[in-house]
Amino acid sequence: MINSTSGPGLLFPKGGWENDETVEEAAVREAMEEAGVRGELKDLIGHYVFKSKTHQDEFCLDGSCKASMFALFVTEELDSWPEQDVRERTWLTIADAIESCRYPWMRDALENGFSTWHSDNVVDDGLKMLFLGVCLGRFI
Predict the structure, then answer these.
(1) Superkingdom, according to UniProt (predicted)?
(2) Considering all CA atoms of the chain, what is the largest pairwise distance in Å, rounded to the nearest integer?
């Protein structure tokens, strides 16, 4: 998980995607930019709806957004990454991540999405897996 730049609690890396990349490519990029990790994107865990204060505008008054959440098998932790001056990565167990998660929608995604996927797919609990999301945009 990574720290929030706007308040207490921890988050999963997430962000939007560029016009020239797929949602999967955006997820891998966000993991590197925000958490300083590289790895193998595993599976789409699910789609989760949340409200974003930064996406509230005349086209979407309530700021509704949808994130695609993925599992990433971490193969490399970088010593230097784009957001290292404002982001700190923290490795947690699933139970600790649920306790530390800042937003209810992320806790739900972790409890009902990632933990189920993890129990069905991960044999070695010592592996470092990252749960991350890509925002699919706003609902109008």
Answers:
(1) Eukaryota
(2) 48
The 10 Å Cβ neighbour count of residue 24 is: 14
| 8 A C-beta contact, residue 43 and residue 71 | yes
* pTM to 2 decimal places: 0.83
Instruction: Give the 3-state secondary structure of the chain.
Output: CEECCCCCCEECCEECCCCCCCHHHHHHHHHHHHHCEEEEEEEEEEEEEEECHHHCECCECCCEEEEEEEEEEEEEECCCCCCCCCCCECCCCHHHHHHHECCHHHHHHHHHHHHHHHHHHCCCCCCCEEEEEEEEEECC
Residues 67-101: pLDDT tens digits?
Answer: 888 888 899 999 999 999 999 999 988 889 999 99
Tokens at 105, concatenated: 């929608």
